Amino acid sequence: MNALAATNRNFQRAARILGLDSKLEKSLLIPFREIKVECTIPKDDGTLVSYVGFRIQHDNARGPMKGGIRYHPEVDPDEVNALAQLMTWKTAVADIPYGGAKGGIGCNPRDLSISELERLTRVFTQKIHDLIGVQRDVPAPDMGTNAQTMAWILDEYSKFHGHSPAVVTGKPIDLGGSLGREAATGLGVVFATEALFAEYGKSVADHTFVIQGFGNVGTWAAKSIYERGGKVIAISDISGAIKNTNGIDIPALLKYKDEGNGTLKDFPGAEVMDPNELLVHECDVLIPCALGGVLNRENASDVKAKFIIEAANHPTDPEADEILSKKGVIILPDIYANAGGVTVSYFEWVQNIQGFMWDEEKVNHELKKYMTRSFQDIKAMCKIHNCGLRMGAFTLGVNRVARATLLRGWEA
Predict the structure, then answer these.
(1) What is the pLDDT of residues 87-124, one digit of tens each?
(2) Selected catalytic residue, list 43, 102, 304, 383
(3) Residue 66 assigned as binding residue
(4) What is the pLDDT of residue 246?
(5) Contact, 345 vs 170, CB < 8 A?
(6) Taking burial as the number of CB atoms within 10 A of a residue's CB, which of 20, 41, 173, 375 is the most buried?
């Protein structure tokens, strides 16, 4: 099942539980606006090349739309639609005043020089500048884009609208980016895990962890787990997987990685393992931080973890969800677990609007407060509707958006 079908299915289940009016349900599902633009640029050798860029703006009932821009050869409108919709529910679960959006350009950023990427980003911004904005739609980095991409968008947008640092988040610190933004998603995952464990009177230090994906989210999550006394016993990335039953020395692994000594599997403090066995490795907590759909009907029954923390978007497909739930595995859903990134993006936007920047301690303190409060809100919905954490999160998000839509007078 693809991401859009799975997201729609979860939404429809939540709508049924909440008893939403069918007309309102349909209205909430249809995106507010879909934008598709042609971006033609001269390459460094003088030849012209065209790409298709788009932005799906899903909902703005609770505030400006918010979501990443990805540069990827297989930017698929269906997937982007699903991710835009997920952002609507995610921002509502985190209780930040945003709606959802997502966008991208169908290109391979590895095949483009820095100057070609800059030209492409500027042309894309020129085409959509009147449809994004501080109070309208606030983009952020995603797959294949970064702080530099946001700096170009900010500069190009400001040519039309005056200095507007709050038009994008995930910017370089020098241009009004927030301290703590880089660590936010990974740290948010750990704050979410702590909130879950508090229900059982446990802490991070009482558990063993397996992390799939050692990019930005995986590295910050591993670092935070290690600092709290948790044992990360296996990790994988695109190059392979490693394990150490006594716990991997995360600071040593990060130092090894930063020094560019080789791939993850060459790290001397652990032994190589089959990446396919990582997801079913013996552990207390499994944290998928990479791609969607990695837990499916083929491997779900072999998962040995007691808890799954969804740091990636849509890592568990619905069939796996049912198998794991029957086994009694507790799954902390993606629309809550990985909301740390968008929460600190919101803090960045607030700081830009105020023209007053926070220190990192304040950012992390506020992030913990938001993640802890959201978990309590989800648990309250689980109690009211007698459902699991995923439906608790979806009913919470959908209910907040539905209420805002009705209050605004959606039939007018």
Answers:
(1) 999 999 999 999 999 999 999 999 999 999 999 999 99
(2) 102
(3) yes
(4) 92
(5) yes
(6) 375
